[in-house]
TrEMBL record:
Lineage of producing organism: Bacteria, Pseudomonadati, Pseudomonadota, Alphaproteobacteria, Sphingomonadales
Top-rank taxon, per record: Bacteria
Protein name in UniProt: Metal-dependent hydrolase
Entries under Pfam families matching the protein: Metal_hydrol
GO MF annotation terms: hydrolase activity
Organism in which the protein naturally occurs: Sphingomonas lutea
Length: 290
């Protein structure tokens, strides 16, 4: 049995922030500064979350029994956060549909990918979750670290994405620590080989499906062909270049000794919480008055 180091900070508090977004006003169709390509890629991402995060919860909870007490508590907090994320993105997706987008093609593709993964053994679904959680964590980091990614966006919708990003960073080690516990009797080589294969598979599907989904939504706004490809690829890979900027963090997944918390980015959480309390208090007052 190989030794396992899980450098999740001992004082980390995974804290569900039960917020609601966009309930009082309709979300503009092109909510991201009127930009078709920016709106499309975020809408395509959001389409994956209600079903995808339910899958994450199911995959991780399958290994909660027998986990160390601290990890078991983190899995519980992870489950709560993901359930709230699913609720808020389901509401957001309904608003996107209300603005005229047909998301059914994108949702069918998500269902298809999940059905393939769910047909595999539980340890494989956990590996897929672990890989996808790394993806969401590095996207979340970049989103919070560079304000240009949400510049010009509808304020309430931008708040939704920042809130989600904070909690993705906060629980970024849970699926990985669960994976380390579940594979504690494996050799380092076997663990690396499986996680590498799964990450390559997940990466291919992520890039193909999110690009295709965004192009489909752009088509619904009348932007097609080479013009659509050029605008989307420039947005993702050049400026502001979200996908280009996460490439280094993605590569670190394959290095010996990798763990999501090798990158301690809690300063992003601190900055968010310093600004968010007034918004959260206002949201709670609104809900309590209803």
């Amino acid at each position: 049995m190989s030794s396992i180091a899980a450098p999740t900070p001992s004082d980390l508090d995974i804290r569900p922030r039960d917020r609601r977004f966009g309930r009082e006003h309709a979300t503009p169709r092109l909510w991201h500064g009127g930009r078709v390509e920016a709106t499309a890629i975020y809408n395509a991402l959001s389409t994956t979350f209600p079903r995808g995060e339910a899958f994450f919860v199911e995959s991780v909870r399958a290994f909660r029994d027998g986990a160390p007490p601290r990890l078991a508590e983190e899995i519980k907090a992870f489950t709560t956060q993901e359930a709230i994320h699913s609720r808020e993105h389901d509401a957001f997706n309904r608003r996107a549909a209300d603005s005229g987008y047909d998301l059914s093609k994108l949702e069918r593709q998500v269902e298809y990918r999940l059905s393939v993964t769910k047909s595999k053994p539980p340890i494989v679904t956990l590996a897929a979750t672990m890989a996808l959680e790394h993806f969401t964590a590095i996207l979340a980091h970049e989103l919070l670290a560079d304000p240009r990614h949400l510049a010009g966006a509808d304020r309430e919708t931008a708040d939704l994405w920042r809130w989600h990003a904070v909690e993705e960073i906060e629980h970024k080690g849970v699926a990985y620590d669960t994976w380390l516990h579940a594979t504690r009797h494996w050799t380092r080589r076997k663990r690396w080989e499986v996680k590498a294969k799964v990450m390559f598979y997940v990466t291919r599907n992520f890039l193909v499906d999110r690009t295709a989904g965004a192009l489909e939504l752009m088509r619904q706004d009348g932007v097609t062909g080479l013009k659509a490809w050029a605008r989307l690829l420039a947005y993702l890979w050049v400026r502001p270049g979200m996908f280009r900027k996460i490439a280094g963090a993605w590569f670190k997944f394959f290095l010996p000794g990798f763990h999501p918390w090798n990158e301690d980015d809690r300063h992003l959480l601190t900055a968010y919480d310093a600004e968010a309390p007034s918004s959260e208090s206002s949201a709670k007052k609104v809900r309590s008055a209803v």
